[in-house]
């Protein structure tokens, strides 16, 4: 889930991070949740949907190409 105080690089990223699924309260269980943000580390990642909580860190936005914080 997204931190409301954080401005993300584009509307698409913000929209994907704010996605709320009525069927899957845990973002790692929802097949429609593809990206996650960790405010503690200021990191973005792609969720690996294999039944766990794995994430692949990303350095660029998949939608607008902006450089993300490292």
Question: Mind sketching the topology for me?
Answer:
Elements: H1 11-17, E1 35-38, E2 43-47, E3 55-58
Antiparallel strand pairs: 1-2, 2-3
Summary?
With 70 residues, the protein is α+β, with helices and mostly antiparallel strands.
Kindly describe this structure.
The chain has 70 residues and is an alpha+beta fold. It has one domain (1-70). It contains 1 helix and 3 strands. The chain has one helix spanning 11-17, and strands at residues 35-38, 43-47, 55-58. It has a 3-stranded antiparallel beta sheet. A hairpin with a 4-residue loop joins strand 1 and strand 2. The longest helix has 7 residues, at 11-17.
List keywords for this structure.
single chain, 70 residues, alpha+beta, three-stranded antiparallel beta sheet, 1 helix, 3 strands
Order of helical and strand elements: HEEE
Query: Tell me, what's the shape?
Result: globular
Number of helices: 1
Distance N terminus to C terminus?
18 Å
Strand content: 15-25%
Mean pLDDT: 92
Low-confidence stretches: none
How many structurally independent domains? 1
User: What Rg do the Cα atoms give?
Assistant: 11 Å
Structural class: alpha+beta
- The quaternary structure here is single chain
**Sheet of most strands:** 3 strands, antiparallel
């Amino acid at each position: 889930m997204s931190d409301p105080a954080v401005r993300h690089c584009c509307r698409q990223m913000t929209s994907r991070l704010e996605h709320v699924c009525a069927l899957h309260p845990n973002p790692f269980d929802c097949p429609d949740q593809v990206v996650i943000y960790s405010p503690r580390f200021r990191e973005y990642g792609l969720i690996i949907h294999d039944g766990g909580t794995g994430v692949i860190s990303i350095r660029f936005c998949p939608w607008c190409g902006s450089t993300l914080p490292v």
